[in-house]
């Protein structure tokens, strides 16, 4: 991920230990959504591997996860930038180490605008919604994801299970 070395640092281990017992919506989302499946869509964005100054650019998945944080917690570009410096759970969710610099608000805004300009912004969120629906979780169609601090099993998923049980009994 962005500027992060392949080998975890001592602070990465400390953060993991600290967050190990935290029950969090973000941990649940991170385990449910396969972000690797979004990589082909994100690669169509045309953002290079280096920024304008020639410095290694932030990973597309990391940047998309920041957009998810914004949606989940109704955060502006400035507020999510600030949160990425102080909230350990947010840092871990997006893949930043304590040694990493968080993307600034301008970088976040440019990334979102590039997704909109290349017409893949909606595709990404629809793909996330589809993954949630495939797991029997409630998701709202369109650009926004229904978030209520916990994920809820949809009624349809339970109906399918009851139908299977009924067929087994017959």
Written description of the protein model:
With 170 residues, this protein is mainly α. It has one domain (10-169). Helix content is 56%, strand content 0%. It contains 9 helices and no strands. Helix 5 (77-86) packs across helix 7 (105-117). The radius of gyration is 18 Å and the shape is globular. Mean pLDDT is 78; it is low at 1-5, 140-149 and 158-170.
Q: Structural class, judged by helices and strands?
A: mainly alpha
Q: SSE string, helix = H, strand = E?
A: HHHHHHHHH
Strand-residue fraction?
under 5%
- Average pLDDT works out at 78
- Principal-axis shape equals globular
Largest sheet, strands/sense/barrel: none
* Intertermini distance: 53 Å
User: How many individual β-strands?
Assistant: 0
How many domains? The number is 1
Given as residue ranges, the uncertain stretches (5+ residues, pLDDT < 50) are 1-5, 140-149, 158-170
Computed over alpha carbons, the radius of gyration is: 18 Å
* Tally of alpha and pi helices: 9
Helix content: 55-70%
